[in-house]
């Protein structure tokens, strides 16, 4: 199966660039005195000057909005190369988009066709890692795709309503720790900056008359914080889930005492079938997870986790606001049912 064979759905499979041809960086192109050994003078070596940009595989017809540069301000920009080669294997493109760092090394992607455009070095090498290393939601790509399509429509075209569903399950840390700034430098600052860019793109589309609604169906924080499930390329046999309603986290000995007393439990360990049951309950179209009665063989652990999601204690009394996923799922169902 290739990307070009999936004409029934638009695909954007993102990767994050870690190394790119020197020709992609105006700031340093032509600044080396001689070519590296074994390379022709007109074919520069890969560099990392613009690491963190994007290379994406797509079957979209319109991608004009993805690229934005200003040669007068060479230090500013987010390079975004979209490959529209329908012969690319879908499985390979998907694997590259999930080339999880630092588990897997950077993957090499050779891009051809530059000679046809009158440019030197017909084959240029890019090195890429997981698309989430740059932006985990990939919402920037989706919004740029919509903007690219708008550019081909006549001014009086009638636009359909657009719903974007975010299915986020990556780790969500909210417990503060003295980390000497590592957390902000390694990911938090990147997410905040990307979030602002996303809001600006959304606002720009809405001003162009697009009725666009974003539905945040991020997995409840019990699955994403303090360990939890997060995102895995393999299913674990069992998962320890911790109470996300307690802040700050008590010392370990207090948690152990509470675990085996009549107080609220601090963690449960569930297996794969139990996890599936919880997820099916989260997205049940008829019954809220807070109103579900679990089978006797799994009732204790699943009831505990569902209470955490619903903001309740062991007695079933509300003690905190329910996880936002519940309201967002209900709103999405109502929104789609009304059409």
Give a description of the structure.
The chain has 339 residues and is α+β, with helices and mostly antiparallel strands. Among the domains are: 130 residues, no CATH class; 88 residues, no CATH class. The protein is 28% helix and 16% strand. It has eight helices and ten strands.
Helix content: 25-40%
Query: Measured on Cα atoms, how large is the radius of gyration?
Result: 24 Å
Structural class from helices and strands? Answer: alpha+beta
Largest sheet: 6 strands, mixed
Instruction: Please tally the β strands and state the result.
Output: 10
Taken as a percent bin, the fraction of beta residues is 15-25%
Low-confidence segments, given as residue ranges, are none
Oligomer: single chain
Distance between the termini: 34 Å
**SSE sequence, one letter per element:** EEEEHEEHEHEHEHEHHH
Instruction: Identify the overall geometry.
Output: globular
Mean pLDDT: 86
Number of helices: 8
Task: Quickly describe the structure.
Among the domains are: 3-132, no CATH class; 234-321, no CATH class. Helices cover 28% and strands 16% of the residues. The chain has 8 helices and 10 strands.
List the helices and strands and how they pair.
Elements: E1 12-21, E2 46-47, E3 54-58, E4 80-83, H1 90-97, E5 107-111, E6 124-130, H2 139-150, E7 162-166, H3 182-207, E8 212-216, H4 221-224, E9 238-242, H5 252-259, E10 267-271, H6 272-282, H7 299-310, H8 324-337
Parallel strand pairs: 3-4, 7-8
Antiparallel strand pairs: 1-2, 1-3, 1-6, 5-6, 9-10
Helix pairs in contact: 2-3
């Amino acid at each position: 199966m290739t990307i070009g064979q999936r004409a029934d759905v638009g695909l954007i499979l993102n990767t994050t660039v870690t190394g790119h041809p020197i020709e992609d960086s105006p700031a340093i192109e032509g600044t080396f005195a001689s070519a590296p050994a074994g390379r022709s003078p007109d074919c520069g070596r890969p560099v990392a000057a613009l690491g963190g940009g994007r290379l994406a595989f797509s079957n979209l017809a319109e991608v004009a909005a993805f690229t934005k540069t200003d040669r007068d301000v060479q230090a500013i920009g987010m390079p975004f190369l979209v490959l529209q080669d329908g012969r690319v294997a879908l499985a390979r493109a998907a694997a590259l988009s999930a080339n999880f760092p630092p588990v897997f090394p950077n993957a090499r992607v050779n891009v051809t066709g530059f000679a046809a455009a009158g440019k030197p070095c017909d084959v240029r090498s890019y090195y890429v890692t997981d698309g989430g290393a740059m932006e985990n939601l990939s919402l920037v790509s989706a919004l740029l795709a919509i903007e690219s399509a708008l550019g081909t429509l006549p001014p009086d075209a009638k636009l359909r309503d657009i719903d974007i569903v975010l299915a986020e399950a990556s780790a969500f840390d909210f417990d503060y720790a003295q980390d000497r700034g590592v957390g902000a430098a390694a990911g938090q600052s990147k997410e905040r900056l990307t979030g602002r860019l996303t809001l600006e793109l959304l606002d720009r589309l809405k001003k162009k008359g697009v009725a666009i609604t974003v539905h945040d169906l991020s997995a409840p924080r019990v699955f994403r914080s303090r360990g939890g499930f997060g995102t895995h390329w393999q299913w674990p046999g069992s998962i320890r889930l911790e109470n996300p309603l307690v802040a700050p986290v008590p010392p370990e000995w207090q948690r152990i005492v509470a675990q085996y007393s009549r107080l609220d439990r601090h963690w449960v360990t569930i297996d794969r079938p139990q996890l599936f049951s919880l997820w099916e309950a989260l997205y049940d179209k008829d019954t809220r997870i807070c109103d579900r009665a679990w089978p006797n063989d799994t009732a204790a652990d699943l009831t505990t986790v569902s209470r955490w999601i619903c903001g309740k204690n062991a007695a079933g009394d509300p003690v905190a606001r329910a996880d936002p996923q519940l309201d967002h799922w209900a709103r999405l169902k109502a929104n789609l049912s009304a059409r």
